[in-house]
Amino acid sequence: MSKLPNVTTSIFTVMSKMAAEYNAINLSQGFPNFPVDERLTDILARLSKENVHQYTPMAGYPPLMNKIARLTFDSYKRIINPELELLVTAGATQGIFTTILALVKEKDEVIILDPSYDSYESPVLLCNAKPVRVALNDDYTPNWDRIEKACSAKTKLMIINNPHNPTGKILTENDFIQLKNLLEKYPDITILSDEVYEYITFEEKHISAHTKDFLLDRCVMVSSFGKSFHITGWKIGYTIAPEHLMKEIKKVHQFLVFSVNSISQFAINEYLDIVDVNLLGKFYQEKRDYFQKLLQNSRFELKPCEGTYFQVASYATISNEDDVTFCKNLIIDHGVAAIPISTFYSDHKDQKLIRFCFAKDDFTLESASEKLCQI
C-alpha cells in the first residue's frame, strides 16, 4: 500500500517533459539557463584537484558555516551560533523535509498556505500528520481570520513562504503583526519560514523572519544557495533554528544525508568572499521588467511580481480552458511551457492563471515572448 497514494508525477516534471518532446521553450521549471558566475566555476575547477572530496562534519564545513553566520548578520543583523543553530542541507527541500520529520508527530496538524510549493505536504503525510491547507486571498495576501480559524490545539507547525512561490508576493509589516497576535494565542505553534528567494526582491525588500524577535525562538529558516547563485543543480542550502529545535533537526539529518556534498561547500565558502548577494535583486528586476515589456502587447494580463523569478499571468481573455489544459496546449500549439497555478492548491482552484519563469537569458525571453504575443 502506498504511503502517498495521491501523489503523482509533479506538474514540473510533466511540463518539462512535454517541453522537450515538442521542442518548446521551457519557462515552466524554476531554473536559470544562463551561465554560472565564472568566478565560482573557476573556484570549483581549482578545488576539484585539491583534497576536498571526503566527508565534511555532519552539520557542515565549519568555515562555510561561519560565513553563513556572517551573511545572516550582514543581511538581517541577527547573530547566530553556527555550531548550535545552523545546518547545511542538500538543498532547501531537504531542509524543509528534515524539519517537518523532526518536529511533526502523528496526528499533529500543519498549516500550509495555498497556493503552495508541492514539497510541503508530502513530509507531513509521511509523519501521519494532517496538512491543513488554507487559501490565500485572491490577491495572494494572507487571510489571517481564515488562518486563525484553521488553527487548533493540534496545530504544531505553520509554513510561510516569503517571497512567495508561485505568486511573487512578499509579506508586509501588518502580516507579521497578525502572525504575532496569532502565535500569542497558540504558543505551541512553530513557524517554518521558507525564504529561498530572500535576495530576489524588487521595489521593496522582503521582511525576513530573521528580523522579528518574537520568532527567533520558535522559527526554522530555510535558505538556498542554489536559488541565490543560479546553481540549482548543486542542491545546497541551509537551515537556521534555535538550538532546541536544531538539535531535533540534526537528529533526522544525520540519518537522511549525514553530510552535504563536500566540494560544493568548499567552493561556496570561497565564493562568499567575493560575491555581493545584494546585487541579485537588481539583476532579476531587470529581467522581470524586460519580460513584462516584451509581453505588454500580448493578450495576457500580468499580475504584480514583488520578488522571486516568477511571473503570474491571466489568460482569461484568451481561453476558457482549465489551466492544465491551457498549459498543455500552449506547449503543443505555441511552443512555450508554463505552469498552471491550480496545481499549487489542494482543491485545484482554477482562476485561469499560469506561471512563467523569467530566470532565462534575453534570447530565450525574446523567443518565448514572440510566440506568446502571437496568441
From TrEMBL:
Keywords: Aminotransferase, Pyridoxal phosphate, Transferase. CDD domains: AAT_like. It comes from the Bacteria. NCBIfam families: PRK09082.1. Residues 24-371 form the Aminotransferase class I/classII large domain. GO terms for molecular function: transaminase activity. This is Methionine aminotransferase. Its cofactor is pyridoxal 5'-phosphate. SUPFAM superfamilies: PLP-dependent transferases (SSF53383). Pfam families: Aminotran_1_2.
